[in-house]
Amino acid sequence: MQRSIEEKRQAIDRAQQLLLKLSAFKNDLPFSPVILQKIFTQTGDNSASPLEEIAATIERDQGLTAKLLRTANSAFYGLQAQVTNVSRAIAVLGLNEIKSIVVAVGVAAMGKSKKPPEAFDFTAYWGHQLRVGMAAKLLASLTHLESPDDLFTSGLLHDLGKLLIAIHAPADWLAIDAAAREAGLPTHEAEDAHWALEHGVVGSMTLKSWNLPPELTEPVNWHHSPMVAPEYRKQALILCLADALVLSLTDPEAPSSCDWSDVLAKLHLDRDRVLAELHALYAGRDFENFAAGLA
Q1: What pLDDT digit, counting tens, does each position of 247-295 carry?
Q2: Stretch (H or E) spanning 85
Q3: pLDDT tens by residue, 115-159
Q4: Hey, CA dihedral for 277, 279, 280, 286, is it positive or negative?
Q5: Distances (CA, A) of 97 to 14, 155, 202
Q6: What does the pLDDT read at residue 73?
Q7: Can you tell me the distance from the alpha carbon of 176 to that of 187, in angstroms, rounded to the nearest whole number?
Q8: What percent of the chain is helix, strand and coil (3-state, nearest 5)?
Q9: Distance between CA atoms of 126 and 29, rounded to whole angstroms?
């Protein structure tokens, strides 16, 4: 359906208004953004913070602690015995996994405080986020990138902007979703056509307002246009590739913004090996249970 010039202008105005509100979204987190910033500082590459100190930071918020332990004990991780405190969860799952769970808990809570349209499928959303995070970490390791765990976190967050648009501009999200389906476009292209703003920018700017480091936020920002990224270009390319790969596995009919097979070849990665390793990574994982643990 063709829109008038005035309708397009109004949509662009709404996009600009949304951008102005992004820094306030941290108020929707179920815990203080100060806690989040401190966790990332304590778990940074140059930090020597002991595990007990990191656990103490998380345990200051009882709600965060409860949801972290529920998620850690979900069937997704398949632990042999339940973990009953944060220190044990860190020891069993590792710092980077715990850090990612904390961020996921925050994002999930934002989706509950302000409901998106019914058509927004939370279970499918988290399944895709997790698969992309796991694929990005694998690809980062295979291409010898430093800190592959950072790519897991970026993958877990790469579509945060989609959720935020659905929550804070539901009518626009519905229009974008309908246009993408009707024209067979990737979502980011439908977003650009609708209001000259795509979800990578929305997600990245929000994460920056939470004071997360650029090695996490920049790949999110540029994951649909990695070759023009001013920094962290390879990380953005890996995230773009992971996104396209996961879509090809889970929804082969979905339009892709990346010829993933061609990119694998350019990165000197064997297609069959990567696919086999991904299938092995995903085997037995209960992605729906992860989403349930965040509830």
Answers
A1: 999 999 999 888 899 999 999 999 999 999 999 999 989 998 888 877 6
A2: none
A3: 899 999 999 999 999 999 999 999 999 999 988 999 999 999 999
A4: positive
A5: 36, 13, 24
A6: 92
A7: 7
A8: 70, 0, 30
A9: 17
The model's pTM is: 0.94
For the chain, what is the total number of helices (H) and then of strands (E)?
17, 0
User: What is d(CA 78, CA 66) in angstroms, rounded to the nearest whole number?
Assistant: 18
Residue from 114, 94, 92 nearest 30 by CA? 114
Query: How far apart are the C-alpha atoms of 30 and 109, rounded to whole Å?
Result: 6
Q: Which two tokens stand for residue 168?
A: 């804070």
Sign of the alpha-carbon dihedral angle for 18, 228, 189, 164: negative
DSSP secondary structure string, 207-259?
Answer: HHHTT--HHHHHHHHTTTSGGG-SS-HHHHHHHHHHHHHHHHHH-TTS--SS-
- Residues 262, 251: contact at Cβ < 8 Å? no
Six-digit token pair at 257?
A: 């913004």
Per-residue pLDDT at 47: 74
Residue 1 has pLDDT above 80, yes or no: no
Per-residue pLDDT tens digits for 202-260: 999 999 999 899 999 999 999 999 999 999 999 999 999 999 999 999 999 999 888 89
Alpha-carbon distances, residue 184 vs 242, 245, 254 (angstroms)? 20, 18, 8
The C-alpha atoms of residue 291 and residue 104 are separated, in whole angstroms, by 9
Side chain identity, residue 77? Y
In one-letter notation, the amino acid at residue 106 is: G
Domains plus CATH for the chain?
Answer: 5-30+100-293 (1.10.3210.10)
- Chain position carrying tokens 């656990």: 55
Amino acid at site 86: V
